[in-house]
Design goal:
Distance between the termini: 32 Å
Number of domains: 1
Largest sheet: none
Number of strands: 0
Length: 164
Amino acid sequence: MKNPLLESRSPSDFWGRRWNLIVHKALKGGVFKPVRKYYSRSVAVVAVFVASGAFHEWLVNILFAPLEYQLDDNGSGACSQCFSPTYGGALVFFLWQAMLVAAERMVGRTELIRSLAKNLPLPLRTAMIISLGLPLAHFFAEPYVRSNFFRHGQPGLPIILAIA
């Protein structure tokens, strides 16, 4: 990563040059370029975000799939005590990001936006960019929050907590 939360200058800068650059490179080579050969840049961008959303949906499926020892003894193949996530939230979130990148291309070169970009301090500009992506972030985070994933994952994902 290249400091996406403090130095991003636009949605495409956030996703394309700062956030998770390893995944960016894989999506660019595996989705964007092949789709771009036959379709417009906009279609290729949407394809990348759909692929990312589908990948994150797959991750939710893998993370919350019941393990064999958790299955009920009645032979149904169900787990009545397991968390059962809802699906589609990651895809919604990433489609929203695709719309932000598309909107950037449509209005990013207008005089008003160029003037704001030139005159706003970078931290404020970045905060505004991040804020544009947040209205649908709850769709992405919902299964992790509802399952207490981060609480149970603390040994692998250290979290700083306030000491009361």
